[in-house]
Design a protein that fits this description.
It holds the Pfam family GBBH-like_N. Keywords: Dioxygenase, Iron, Metal-binding, Oxidoreductase. The chain has 383 residues and is α+β, with helices and mostly antiparallel strands. It folds into two domains: 90 residues, 2-Layer Sandwich (NE0471 N-terminal domain-like), CATH 3.30.2020.30; 261 residues, 4-Layer Sandwich (Double-stranded beta-helix). The protein is 26% helix and 28% strand. A hairpin with a 7-residue loop joins strand 14 and strand 15.
Length: 383
């Protein structure tokens, strides 16, 4: 319950207090810009109907009153009164005392290692996810929380991986096509198409933006070896930061360069850090792919030794079995990874038998949008 609302700074700010002792302050201009009335926001889609220039620069609060579970605020000089639900104010509070340390992640993200994940890999059957929104919600939520999940029960046929993408969004087509084959080839244009083992990596760091989701589906797998594995890049980055804060700083504040020129008419290049932080220090992306790393030319000479030491240690941690979760895909199984967070790898396999996987890319915003819509519907049904 909201217990008090006190105007400060001549009405340009307001301080709110709750009965549990929590307090937070809001600026009048912020409240006016985020007003929820139908003259400020569209009732249909929630988008703003005004611009910042439509709000008087001298906006302040002239009066407030508490009515039930809402706070009514009158803005001057407009003379406009807007009602703000108390729960909305609490959920959108930005007046925080504690500073966030670089490398933080939101509460919904759970970092993991082999010890915490090997025996609890998130999975669902395709039929159950297709027919049950509750199952689909759990599976999509696992991808959001852990950065990967397995799906069983797909048809063991070419193109079946598209069914996974169709559950939440759309395939992102690239120069590799709508989807691509992952099996041994003669004179391949990518090492993924051989029977060699692959170091844990994120895909396509030479793109800007990178594909944010990758789906790999198994059509046939009768070889010895060839197990898939995943590594939580966020957990590895946290480990590096814990033992070598300066190394973490070097990998997150200096860009690496990536490039690909393996196909005729294709020359892809990007310049982004291996560990990417947002402006507020949030850990938002891992890019790690030794095969695609171009010469690093953006690190100052005085810091290059330290940068390479951090890069080496980051690679050692990624290779540490303590961070690796391993599973073998059988025909009709697939897995999805958040390509901005989770690295995937493959063990070497023999030339006896066949291993045929197909891969494609999709966008995380579609997955998160579908998940948010399902969660919204479930909340409304519960109310």
């Amino acid at each position: 319950m909201l217990t008090r609302a006190t105007l400060t700074n001549d009405g340009r700010t307001i301080e709110l207090g709750w009965e549990d002792g929590t307090r937070c302050r809001f600026h009048a201009i912020w409240l006016r810009d985020n007003a929820l009335d139908d003259k400020t926001r569209s009732a249909g889609n929630g988008q703003r109907l005004i611009t910042i220039l439509d709000i008087p620069a001298e906006t302040h609060i002239g009066a407030t009153s508490m009515k039930g579970d809402a706070l009514e605020v009158t803005f001057v000089p407009e003379g406009k009164t807007v009602s703000f639900p108390v729960q909305w104010l609490r959920a959108n509070a930005y007046d925080r005392d504690e500073p966030r340390q670089p490398g933080w992640t939101g509460d919904v993200i759970q970092r993991w290692t082999k010890a915490t994940m090997q025996n609890s890999v998130p999975r669902a059957s395709y039929a159950a996810a297709f027919h049950g929104r509750g199952i689909l919600r759990e599976w999509l939520s696992a991808v959001r929380t852990y950065g990967f999940a397995v799906m069983d029960g797909l048809p063991a046929e070419s193109g079946a991986l598209c069914k996974v993408a169709d559950l939440f969004g759309y395939i992102r087509e690239t120069n590799y096509g709508r989807w691509f084959e992952v099996r041994a080839e003669v004179n391949p244009n990518n090492l993924a198409y051989t029977n060699l083992g692959l170091q844990a990596h994120t895909d396509n760091p030479y793109r800007d933006p990178v594909p944010t989701l990758q789906i790999l589906a198994c059509i046939e797998n009768t070889v010895e070896g060839g197990e898939s594995s995943v590594v939580d890049g966020f957990a590895v980055a946290a480990a590096l930061q814990g033992e070598n804060p300066d190394g973490f700083r070097l990998l997150s504040s200096n860009p690496a360069r990536f490039e690909y020129a393996g196909s005729s008419g294709v020359r892809l290049q990007s310049k982004r850090p291996m560990i990417e932080l947002g402006p507020d220090g949030e850990l938002i992306c891992i890019r790690f792919n030794n095969r695609s790393l171009a010469p690093t030319v953006d690190v100052p000479f005085a810091e290059m030794d330290g940068y390479y030491a951090a890069y080496r240690r980051f690679a050692e941690l990624i290779e540490d079995p303590a961070f690796e979760v391993t599973f073998k895909l059988e025909a009709g199984q697939s897995f999805i990874v958040d390509n901005t967070r989770v690295m995937h790898a493959r063990k070497a396999f023999s030339g006896i038998g066949k291993r045929w996987l197909q891969g494609c890319y999709a966008d995380k915003d579609g997955l998160l949008s579908t998940l948010a819509a399902i969660e919204h519907d479930f909340r409304e049904a519960a109310e």
